């Protein structure tokens, strides 16, 4: 619940910003996203710390299409589920995409009745559904078969419940060429999956060196994420105002140990001999060290410089690496194992490369590495700084520490990466043209990754979507808004119909805010109207932009029928959500791209029960795409609502501060 | 051909019986000799395992079709008619002595194969036999008591290929007595009393460690040829540290004995490790002994292992089915309540306030605290998320001190927070909760209760040790000194050791028995000195003794003065190696024109030769996946001149 609240307030804040920028378009030029710089927004909740940058339109398109795909998929799933559970619901394909109220939905969810309807069922499934299935089956469960069915249902329900809590982040990934891509990452997604996603978006050669790296601006650190890691977790540790970045780069050192194991396992030999080593011997080394019943860590021992706690000096010590940690030989003692003193064990630390430590910490060389708990983001005595004499030694240590820490996972990651590299390169060669549309490929990938959260269904063919948008009035251009919208996704799952922001706030605490928002709503519409005018910078942006217009009451060109529904719903906005029949409104909101401004209007319109059926109808499908735009509208609303919320103002302040700094 | 008299000693008649004389001709084959002998003996029994041993020549006359002439046996030959299989007292890696019948006529390699088949150990090529270290006189009375494990009754013919009956090789299923033997083989022994560890011989240096390797029997020759007699004591040990294809289903005995060997290697400091590693080994031993006590049924239910998955599944369904209503289901997913008055202290804050009492509440992975229970509905004074934090105990049962030290990561660094509990129960619950939370698990996690239990049992351990010193350990309380090498007996008191082991224990306490055993073996194998067998040698051209370390993949040269590895040679760079049996020198040629030669001082050069050849043999195994052991290749690689 809190998450949802946070998300919504985040969104509102964004909307606020957007409206401001819209209003003053001519005014403070500075408002526009300091395009090159990365801006990280984080809500009060660290976990929601989505780092959004000013997105370029293209980025937005990509993101949107991803999101849409996700929505469709979820919807399909839901439909299937519903069918399975009870009523003969219409075929899943027909269902509108926006079922799960995720940030995505906010963007994609169309105000169309259909979408609303669809949204409704899902919510119920998420909240109450888990219990429901079990009970159903429970009664008959006297026979094995039934028990099994029941077990499956329970499982499904549990999964749904879990899904509801899945956290998602919008991540801006910097490319080598200085451009960036924006992705939505689900907390269950591994780095490997995100890389695959990026491969499809970038058409790079997919070799095993491609990595996602995390940089810490404040500490001047960087490290490559391991492929098996979940991306969301480490990013969640970033502080709100962090200038950390995620880079997509080729990092030769990532899997160097599998390409040239001799450099790590036979490092004592002279370099010339190592160069001449035969492939066969390399294989043997890998087999010996990674394929046995135990992973063997390179036998490392060197004199390294250790940065003394709290002092500026660096002290030399003889360090040894063992599978169980890094040790040093105390003064006057022998190197025998029993005398070694444990310096650090790897359970709770990650290893990072230090950048430019000569300047920053007066290190003897620039070849430094650091061990720290991933959550530590600022200078602290709990960070261990080590300095090597040369780059070779540093790589040796960092790689060997990774082997000690991750063990066989590292080798498995490499093998997967290698397979991917081969398959991908073949595949991209063949299908490059078709894959050009980023949206298509990414959804599928995601589907795999997040089996349930993100639908697999890439139903919304990118083409049609864009066309629809084209018809729509140019959505509001401000890129910043886009950044914010992303966060919302998580909430929906929890509350079936995360009604628009309002709904989210429906939670007791939020009520007050909701009212505020509503009060504010009235104003938004006008703004909304204004919004359309802002010419969409590009065609692609329209995807996002278009939706807003519909929200605003703009007639959706493509989905006339649905629109009608929307319109009806729109009127309701004025009434306070509280008064409205809570359940129905909520779904609407979500469907209507709840997170953004749209929420207010939707709540009332959707007839709780009917919507479901409507949703079932195939008609909704085409129109669903438009919903996405709501974000733009949101800004307007946000402006209204934001005022009342501390969070929002805080956010705004942060933004402004940032801008002014720039 | 002329007949002449051949006298044969029949062992079964006793040491004082006169030799039996039979009349033979030189063209009589050995089979005929035996026939005549048996006829003359007129004893009705099964003589099929018996054969003739030629004492002067130290050889068996096993080829019964060969004539006396071909064997070059003349009237002066002293032949002994005796069984090929005789009982030996086999010291197992777990320290227990088992009496069984071993083959005295085939090369030791085959003898070991036979023993392993009987014990149910796969991959016998990794093991071999050692002459035991002589023990002090006191042993005598002990011998008697140790003989309870006896496998000599088992008919040799009944020992067949690996197939399991009731979870064990079928020949163990015949009687309760045999089943007890199997249990001894397949279940880990309880931790030894600290005095037992302290009494055992511990090598103090690499040279000490080298001596044991002079005791390996020659795999190419039979026991008789190596002076072993019936009822002699022998040790069975893993010799080649290259464990192939361990399968927890078929390798119960193998893994157990391997664990025992590793455990003793660590307890007796035969292999060095750091203090941190020792604590982890201690924690694993504790866990293993606890789990193997609590699930002895595993022994017999092994057959059911196949169905384990199904069983688990049905269990899952059952458990889930029990919560038939939605609300109940939800309930099971919500954590048990945990809230209480505790005292908190934050050393980093420079306040001198010390511990202050608040009302604490555990939620998910966070603790929140409030001024009082009454105010716990409102906003907490603070909420601390424990995910990713470090949890350390600071407990003294005697002093009633129950501290939980938390090191909580934050962007600025780690925050230290101490929680003080009033009593054991409270401590166990909160400690368990903190541990789970640090791993990102909530109280709803199924391991919460077992975590509490294990903390309590550790507290119990401290209690008994604190009050009664080294009192005999009951099931619940194991002396922590039983889990670590004597070095740490001196360094730490049991109650100091307990929290350290407990600390390591939290990372392993959820492992199954098999997983815990495997983890122990893995950590052992990851030690830098793992797999090294030492021999003191003198390199050609050098005047001082040095140590050669033989590892599964390489040879290392250790300078005794410095104690350091000065050179490493890998087998895969080896072109050839030769042994000059006359001057007892091993010469090895590596790629790149590297030649080394050394003579062996603490072991016969045959032993070194066998080690090198043996490891090369071990490395060939993975390629040919066949189940059949390539005995011929082994002999080729390790036999030396006998193989020619």
From TrEMBL, chain A:
Transmembrane segments: none annotated. It is a peripheral membrane protein. GO terms for biological process: signal transduction. One of its GO terms (cellular component) is cytoskeleton. SUPFAM superfamilies: PH domain-like (SSF50729), Ubiquitin-like (SSF54236). It comes from the Eukaryota. Residues 106-119, 428-444 have a biased composition (Low complexity). Coiled coil: none annotated. Residues 297-406 form the PH domain. Residues 88-100, 120-134, 472-502, 521-561, 570-587, 595-611 have a biased composition (Pro residues). Keywords: Cell membrane, Cytoplasm, Cytoskeleton, Membrane. Its main location: membrane. Residues 85-146, 427-662 are annotated as: Disordered. Residues 167-253 form the Ras-associating domain. The keyword Cell membrane applies. The keyword Membrane applies. It is found in: Cell membrane; Cytoplasm, Cytoskeleton. Belongs to the MRL family. PANTHER family: AMYLOID BETA A4 PRECURSOR PROTEIN-BINDING FAMILY B MEMBER 1-INTERACTING PROTEIN, GROWTH FACTOR RECEPTOR-BOUND PROTEIN. This is Amyloid beta A4 precursor protein-binding family B member 1-interacting protein. It comes from Oryzias latipes (Japanese rice fish).
TrEMBL record, chain B:
Keywords: Cell adhesion. It holds the Pfam family FERM_M. SMART domains: B41, PH. InterPro entries: Band_41_domain, FERM_2, FERM_central, Kindlin/fermitin, Kindlin_2_N, PH-like_dom_sf, PH_domain, PH_Kindlin/fermitin. Residues 343-439 form the PH domain. SUPFAM superfamilies: PH domain-like, Second domain of FERM. Coiled coil: none annotated. GO terms for biological process: cell adhesion; integrin-mediated signaling pathway. Belongs to the kindlin family. This is FERM domain containing kindlin 3b.
């Amino acid at each position: 619940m809190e998450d949802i609240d946070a998300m919504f307030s985040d969104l509102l804040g964004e909307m606020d910003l957007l409206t401001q920028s819209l209003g003053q378009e001519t005014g403070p030029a500075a408002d526009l996203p300091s395009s090159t710089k990365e801006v990280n927004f984080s809500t009060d909740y660290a976990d929601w710390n989505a780092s959004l940058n000013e997105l370029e339109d293209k980025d937005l398109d990509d993101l949107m299409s991803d999101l849409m795909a996700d929505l469709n998929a979820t919807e399909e799933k839901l439909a299937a589920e519903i069918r399975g559970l009870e009523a003969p619901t219409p075929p899943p394909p027909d269902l509108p995409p926006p079922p799960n109220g995720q940030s995505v939905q906010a963007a994609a969810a169309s105000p169309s009745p259909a979408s609303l309807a669809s949204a409704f069922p899902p919510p119920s499934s998420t909240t109450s559904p888990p219990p429901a299935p079990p009970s159903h089956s429970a009664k008959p469960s006297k026979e094995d078969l039934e028990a099994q069915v029941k077990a499956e249902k329970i499982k499904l329900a549990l999964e749904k419940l879990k899904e509801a809590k899945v956290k998602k982040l919008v991540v801006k990934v910097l490319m080598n060429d200085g451009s960036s891509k924006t992705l939505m990452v689900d907390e269950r997604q591994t780095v490997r999956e995100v890389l695959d996603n990026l491969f499809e978006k970038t058409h790079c050669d997919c070799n095993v060196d491609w990595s996602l790296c995390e940089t810490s601006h404040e500490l001047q650190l960087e490290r490559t994420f391991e492929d098996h890691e979940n991306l969301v977790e480490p990013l969640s540790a970033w502080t709100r105002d962090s200038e950390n970045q995620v880079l997509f780069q080729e990092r030769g050192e990532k899997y160097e140990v599998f390409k040239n194991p001799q450099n790590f396992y036979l490092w004592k030999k002279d370099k010339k001999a190592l160069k001449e080593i035969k492939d066969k011997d390399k294989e043997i080394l890998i087999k010996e060290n990674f394929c046995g019943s135990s992973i063997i860590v390179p036998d490392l021992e060197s004199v390294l410089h250790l940065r003394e706690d709290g002092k500026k000096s660096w002290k030399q010590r003889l360090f040894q690496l063992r599978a169980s940690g890094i040790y040093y030989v105390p003064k006057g003692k022998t190197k025998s194992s029993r005398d070694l003193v444990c310096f650090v064990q790897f359970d709770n630390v990650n290893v990072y490369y230090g950048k430019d430590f000569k300047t920053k910490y007066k290190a003897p060389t620039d070849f430094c590495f650091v061990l720290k708990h991933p959550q530590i983001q600022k200078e602290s005595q709990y960070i261990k700084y080590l300095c090597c004499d040369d780059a070779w030694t540093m790589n040796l240590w960092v790689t060997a520490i990774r082997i000690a820490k991750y063990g066989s996972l590292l080798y498995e990651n490499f093998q997967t990466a290698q397979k991917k590299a081969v398959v991908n390169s073949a595949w991209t060669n063949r299908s490059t043209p078709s894959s050009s549309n980023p949206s298509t490929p990414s959804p599928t990938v995601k589907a795999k990754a997040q089996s349930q959260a993100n639908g697999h269904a890439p139903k919304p063919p990118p083409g049609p979507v864009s066309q629809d948008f084209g018809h729509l009035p140019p959505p509001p251009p401000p890129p910043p808004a886009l950044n914010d919208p992303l966060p919302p996704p998580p909430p929906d799952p929890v509350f079936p119909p995360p009604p628009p922001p309002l709904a989210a706030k429906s939670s007791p605490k939020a009520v007050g805010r909701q009212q505020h928002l509503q009060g504010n709503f009235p104003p938004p519409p006008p703004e909304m109207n204004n919004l359309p005018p802002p010419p969409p910078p590009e065609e692609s942006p329209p995807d996002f932009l278009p939706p807003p217009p519909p929200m605003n009451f703009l007639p959706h060109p493509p989905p006339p029928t649905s629109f009608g529904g929307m319109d009806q719903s729109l009127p309701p906005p004025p009434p306070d959500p509280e008064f409205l029949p809570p359940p129905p409104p909520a779904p609407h909101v979500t469907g209507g791209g709840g997170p953004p401004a749209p929420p207010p209007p939707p709540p009332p319109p959707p007839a709780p029960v009917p919507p479901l059926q409507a949703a079932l109808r195939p008609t909704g499908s085409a129109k669903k795409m438009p919903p996405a735009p709501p974000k733009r509208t949101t800004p307007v609303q946000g402006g209204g609502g934001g005022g009342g919320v501390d969070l929002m103002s805080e956010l705004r302040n942060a933004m402004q501060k940032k801008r002014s700094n720039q | 051909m002329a007949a002449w008299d051949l006298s044969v000693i029949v062992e079964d008649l006793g040491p004082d019986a006169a030799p039996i004389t039979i009349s033979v001709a030189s063209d009589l084959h050995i089979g005929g000799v035996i026939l005549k002998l048996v006829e003359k003996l007129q004893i009705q029994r099964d003589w099929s395992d018996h054969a003739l041993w030629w004492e002067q020549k130290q050889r068996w006359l096993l080829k019964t079709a060969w004539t006396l002439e071909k064997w070059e046996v003349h009237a002066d030959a002293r032949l002994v008619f005796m069984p090929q299989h005789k009982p030996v007292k086999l010291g197992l890696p777990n320290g227990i002595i088992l009496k069984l019948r071993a083959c005295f006529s085939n090369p030791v390699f085959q003898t070991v194969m036979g023993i392993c088949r009987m014990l149910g150990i796969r991959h016998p090529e990794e093991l071999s036999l050692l002459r035991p270290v002589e023990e002090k006189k006191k042993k005598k009375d002990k011998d008697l008591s140790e003989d309870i494990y006896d496998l000599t009754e088992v008919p040799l013919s009944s020992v067949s290929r690996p197939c399991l009956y009731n979870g064990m090789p079928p020949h163990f299923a015949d009687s309760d007595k045999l089943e007890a033997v199997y249990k001894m083989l397949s279940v880990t022994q309880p931790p030894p009393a600290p005095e037992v560890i302290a009494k055992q011989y511990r090598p103090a240096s690499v040279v000490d460690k080298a001596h044991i390797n002079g005791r390996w029997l020659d795999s190419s020759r039979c026991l008789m040829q190596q002076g072993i007699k019936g009822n002699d004591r022998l040790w069975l040990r893993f010799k080649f540290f290259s464990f192939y294809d361990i399968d927890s289903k078929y390798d119960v005995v193998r893994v157990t004995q391997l664990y025992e060997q590793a455990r003793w290697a660590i307890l007796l400091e035969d292999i060095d490790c750091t203090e941190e590693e020792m604590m982890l080994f201690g924690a694993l031993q504790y866990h293993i002994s606890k789990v193997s006590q609590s699930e002895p049924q595993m022994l017999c239910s092994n057959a059911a292992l196949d169905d384990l998955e199904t069983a688990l599944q049905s269990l899952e369904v059952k458990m889930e089915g029990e919560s038939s209503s939605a609300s109940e289901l939800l309930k099971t997913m919500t954590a048990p309540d945990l809230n209480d008055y505790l005292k908190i202290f934050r050393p980093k804050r420079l306040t001198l306030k010390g511990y202050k009492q608040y009302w604490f509440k555990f939620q998910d992975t966070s603790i929140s605290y409030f001024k009082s229970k009454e105010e716990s509905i409102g906003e907490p004074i603070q909420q601390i998320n424990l995910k990713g934090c470090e949890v350390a105990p600071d407990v003294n049962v005697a002093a009633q001190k129950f501290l939980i030290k938390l090191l909580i990561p934050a962007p600025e660094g780690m925050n230290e927070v101490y929680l003080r509990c009033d009593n054991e129960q409270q401590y166990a619950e909160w400690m368990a909760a903190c541990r789970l939370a640090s791993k990102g698990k909530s109280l709803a996690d199924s391991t919460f209760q077992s975590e509490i239990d294990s903390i309590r049992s550790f507290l119990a351990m401290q209690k008994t040790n604190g009050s009664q010193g080294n009192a005999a350990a009951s099931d619940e309380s194991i002396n922590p000194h039983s889990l670590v090498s004597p070095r740490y007996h001196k360094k730490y008191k049991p109650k100091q050791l307990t929290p350290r082991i407990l600390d390591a224990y939290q990372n392993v306490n959820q492992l199954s028995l098999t997983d815990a055993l495997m983890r122990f073996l893995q950590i052992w194998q990851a030690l830098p000195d793992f797999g090294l067998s030492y021999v003191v040698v003198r390199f050609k051209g050098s005047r001082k003794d040095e140590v050669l370390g033989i590892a599964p993949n390489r040879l290392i040269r250790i300078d005794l003065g410095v104690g350091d590895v000065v050179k490493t040679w890998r087998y895969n760079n080896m072109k050839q190696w030769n042994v000059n049996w006359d001057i007892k020198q091993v010469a090895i040629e590596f790629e790149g024109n590297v030649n080394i030669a050394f003579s062996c001082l603490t072991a016969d050069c045959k032993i070194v030769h066998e080690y090198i050849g043996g490891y090369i043999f071990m490395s060939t195994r993975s390629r040919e996946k066949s189940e059949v052991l390539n005995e011929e290749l082994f002999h080729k690689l390790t036999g030396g001149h006998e193989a020619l």
